């Protein structure tokens, strides 16, 4: 009695466990008749266990007289081996069916069938396949070159444009380190540039190439390019790879060089005209001095000398404005701490700065930029104190030059960078500052509170 009670308890415990499952569990005899079914199976078939026992599944489940084609349970009974299949029902539900044989003393005594509803899984899988196909088609069709890497910066996908520029086929590039396929160097130095995918993986942010980057293709051909690399982030924020987007910048580069040549020619012409004008002004100024030395006394002579000095100043300022947008020569490394300390000696106000970074640019123009901003703070703002701060922004640095002067009236704030705008000088200083910043690939803006002070905020890339 004790043994039978223990067996009954074990059997009941087994059934409670099986009834708790969401999968359908059905036990069959070797004659393919139902012996037992859990609650999930009874609910799906729509009949209590008592009505299912002794019946064949195809009769009670589908009302059929014959077994389903390729029935896993029937195949399991016939072969005595594990079988599984996916079955699409008439109500469009998809069931994954497993059938496993039960042996006792070497003889088949039954089969256990486990049925799992995988309709939602298959729907999601189908949607994922469609999404992947849509993404692949999109990346293949866009005009930019696209390379996708894994977390080890190895190539997992290239679109046709990328293959055309790098001269690597997608299959050949797959699994290779990005540096092998995307070989980039500096146009100025010829030195190999840092892998943008590695930087994007390391920083977890979008990064871009330095200006004047050259792509060396598999066949040795060279193409100027522009690009950016973005990390692929999962829902949890983890980085799963990098997508690199780049394009052939040959035409843009040629247009830029052509424009630079035109600007240089215009600057040379302006210098020639300015030289001629200064020569004539010097002659006129000289005649006025001669007349004064010969005893001629007239207020007009003083006016001539004064106007001549102003004209020379205007011509010099116009030349500075024309030259401000040109980067002459190869950009050099600039220690901004030394620049600010040198320029600060010219001003009678407290100038504080934190540790400033090194950038690449034209030293004379960068010095001119800080000189203009400090001069504006003292001469026009009446400032007693100026602070200079720097904030890293990845590929560039943002600088803030803040003074405690009288500020800029609201009606003037939108015009301070306009050529000729002035409240007491030539009106070219801040226009020149704007051109210098833009020539270095940055931007500048101003904010001000009348009576409290002004801040000029500008960005400068670390590399040119």
Structural description of this entry:
- By secondary structure, this protein is of the alpha+beta class.
- It has four domains: 1-117, PAS domain (Beta-Lactamase); 125-249, PAS domain (Beta-Lactamase); 254-324; 332-461, Histidine kinase-like ATPase, C-terminal domain (Heat Shock Protein 90, 2-Layer Sandwich).
- It is 42% helix and 26% strand.
- It is built from 15 helices and 19 strands.
- Helix 11 (250-293) runs antiparallel to helix 12 (299-324) and helix 12 runs parallel beside helix 15 (429-439).
- The mean pLDDT is 84.
* Named CATH architecture of the largest domain: 2-Layer Sandwich
CATH class of the largest domain: Alpha Beta
Q: What distance lies between the first and last C-alpha atoms, to the nearest angstrom?
A: 92 Å
Quaternary structure type: single chain
Total domain count: 4
Main beta-sheet annotation? 7 strands, antiparallel
Q: Give me the number of helical elements.
A: 15
Strand content: 25-35%
Q: How many strand elements?
A: 19
Bulk shape: elongated
Main structural class: alpha+beta
Structure, briefly:
This protein has 464 residues and is of the alpha+beta class. It has 15 helices and 19 strands.
List the helices and strands and how they pair.
Elements: H1 2-19, E1 24-28, E2 34-37, H2 39-45, H3 49-52, H4 57-62, H5 72-79, E3 83-88, E4 94-104, E5 107-117, H6 119-141, E6 145-149, E7 155-158, H7 160-166, H8 170-173, H9 178-181, E8 183-186, H10 196-203, E9 207-208, E10 213-216, E11 222-233, E12 239-248, H11 250-293, H12 299-324, E13 332-335, H13 336-344, E14 350-353, E15 358-361, H14 363-380, E16 385-392, E17 396-403, H15 429-439, E18 444-449, E19 453-461
Parallel strand pairs: 14-16
Antiparallel strand pairs: 1-2, 1-5, 3-4, 4-5, 6-7, 6-12, 8-10, 9-11, 10-11, 11-12, 13-15, 16-17, 17-19, 18-19
Helix pairs in contact: 11-12, 12-15, 13-14, 14-15
């Amino acid at each position: 009695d004790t043994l039978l009670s223990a067996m009954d308890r074990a059997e009941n415990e087994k059934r409670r466990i099986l009834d708790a499952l969401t999968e359908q569990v059905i036990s069959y005899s070797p004659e393919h008749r139902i012996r037992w079914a859990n609650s999930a199976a009874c609910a799906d078939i729509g009949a209590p266990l008592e009505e299912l026992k002794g019946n064949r599944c195809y009769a009670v489940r589908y009302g059929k007289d014959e077994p389903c084609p390729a029935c896993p349970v029937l195949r399991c009974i016939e072969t005595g081996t594990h079988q599984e299949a996916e079955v699409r029902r008439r109500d469009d539900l998809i069931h994954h069916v497993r059938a496993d044989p039960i042996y006792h003393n070497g003889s088949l005594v039954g089969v256990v069938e486990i049925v799992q509803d995988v309709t939602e899984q298959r729907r999601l899988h189908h949607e994922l396949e469609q999404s992947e196909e849509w993404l692949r088609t999109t990346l293949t069709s866009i005009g930019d070159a696209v390379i996708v890497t894994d977390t080890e910066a190895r190539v997992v996908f290239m679109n046709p444009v990328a293959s055309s520029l790098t001269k690597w086929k997608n299959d050949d590039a797959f699994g290779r380190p990005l540096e092998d396929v995307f070989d980039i160097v500096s146009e100025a130095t010829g030195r190999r540039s840092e892998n943008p995918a590695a930087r994007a993986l390391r920083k977890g942010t979008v990064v871009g190439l330095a200006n004047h980057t050259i792509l060396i293709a598999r066949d040795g051909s060279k193409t100027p390019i522009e690009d950016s690399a973005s990390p692929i982030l999962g829902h949890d924020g983890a980085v799963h790879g990098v997508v690199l987007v780049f394009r052939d910048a040959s035409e843009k580069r040629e247009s830029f060089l052509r424009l630079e040549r035109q600007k240089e020619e215009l600057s040379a012409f302006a210098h020639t005209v300015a030289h001629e004008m200064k020569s004539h002004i010097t002659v006129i100024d000289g005649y006025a001095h001669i007349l004064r030395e010969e005893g001629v006394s007239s207020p007009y002579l003083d006016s001539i000398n004064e106007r001549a000095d102003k004209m020379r100043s205007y011509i010099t300022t116009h030349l500075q404005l024309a030259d401000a947008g040109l980067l002459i020569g190869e950009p050099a490394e600039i220690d901004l701490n030394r620049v600010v300390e040198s320029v600060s000696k010219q001003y009678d106000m407290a100038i504080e700065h934190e540790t400033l970074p090194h950038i690449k640019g034209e030293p004379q123009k960068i010095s001119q930029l800080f000189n203009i901003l400090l001069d504006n703070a003292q001469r026009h703002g009446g400032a007693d104190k100026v602070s200079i701060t720097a904030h890293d922004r990845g590929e560039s640095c943002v600088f803030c030059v803040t003074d405690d002067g009288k500020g800029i009236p609201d009606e003037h704030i939108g015009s301070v960078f306009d050529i000729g705008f002035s409240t007491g000088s030539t009106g070219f200083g801040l226009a020149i500052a704007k051109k210098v910043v833009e020539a270095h690939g940055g931007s500048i803006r101003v904010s001000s509170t009348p009576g409290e002070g002004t801040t000029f905020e500008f960005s400068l890339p670390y590399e040119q």
